[in-house]
Structures are given as C-alpha cells and as structure tokens.
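ok trying again, last paste got cut off:
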Amino acid sequence: VPMDVLEHPFAQGRVEDLDGTPVYSLVSGPDRTLALWIKRAFDIVVAALGLLVLSPLFAVVGWAVRRDGGPALFRQTRVGVQGRSFEILKFRSMTVDAEGQLAELASENELDGPAFKMTADPRITPLGRTLRRWSIDELPQLWNVLRGDMSLVGPRPPIPSEVGDYDLWHRRRLSMKPGITGLWQVRSRHETVFDKWVEDDLEYIDRWSLWLDMTILLRTIPAALEGR
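nice, full thing came through this time. structure:
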C-alpha cells in the first residue's frame, strides 16, 4: 500500500522500499479458522456457566431495577460483525426516556467523535450508577454471547447512528464479532478521542489470538471487581 494514500496504517505491518517507493507491507499469519472455532466454543461454555451461576444475582438486580420504575432490561439495536444488526441486552441503568433525552445532551458530549460519552450523565439513575461502577449492567450480554451475536472479547458494538458517521477506516472495526470487553476497555477506557478507541480495536483485530483474549479477560476481571 503506497504510504501517501494510507492515512491510518494498520496495527501490524512494516514500511518497506519498493524500487524507491515507500510502501506499507502486511504479512498474513497462519489460518485462524481452528482458533476461531475454539474462541466460539469458549464463549459458549463461559456464557452458559455465567448465566447459570449468576442467575440469583440476575433475579435480585432485575427486581431492584423494576422496583426503581420501568423494565429491568434495556434493549437496543447495535451493529455487529460485517454490519449485521442485533438487539443487545443490558440491565437498565438510565431513566426510561433516556434515549429521547439524548438530543438535548448532545452539546455535553465529552468524546471527540461519533460516539457519545458524558461522565455526569443526568439520565443515569442512582441504582444505575452502582450497576455501572461494578459493570453489573453488562452481564445480560452473556445471553448475546450465547446466541452468537457477540463474543466475550472484541470491539464494542456501536449503535447504527454512530456507524453512519464513521470514516471509511473506522468501518474495519466491524470485521470481527463485538465483545463485552476489549482492548480499549482495559487500556483506554477514559480516552476521549474516538479515533484512539478505533485504533485499539484495529490493533486487537490485527494481533488477535486466543492468548490475547485470555490476557484481556484476566485484566477485565480485577478492573470490574475494583470498580474501575
């Protein structure tokens, strides 16, 4: 790839000289088919066990959220691998009309890019803040993992309106199944530049291995338990 047309290089590769022209070379690794089958099998086992073991917690949290007013689960359309849409599940941590208030808060966006992030979001309920602090609101996504919509580890699934505002190079983050946790969550979660999130996602895709997944999961668990 000629360097003068490649504004955002891939995470893996090297600059070489081709008869006086600098080029960015990518060398493909071994076939990942078997490793991806193992990744899927691991997702199924962990998600099934997680749903079973955590079912008492799900019941308590669901009851508490409903007691707070409104449904226990929040359902939202997200964009998954290769642009396919699916319905993500989370414990509701915001007011019932949260999505309707988003336009009013657009000017408070702390993120430089098409996604939305606001530290002191007034739509988050008191119970929701607790659920978010310990990442408990994310646990219903184990059902999405079991269904095959998501993986335990991967890029976070965006909403359709965000994808509509993507630059062309952002779209490559949709080339792998989205995950509950990922490289940018354990490395750059408080980063406010959207392009940095995408760069981390693309690095994960290019460097992907079962070992990298295990490393990210092992870093995620203590981060969640410590509320960070």
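cool. Residues 158 and 201 are 12 Å apart (CA to CA). The chain has a mean pLDDT of 87.
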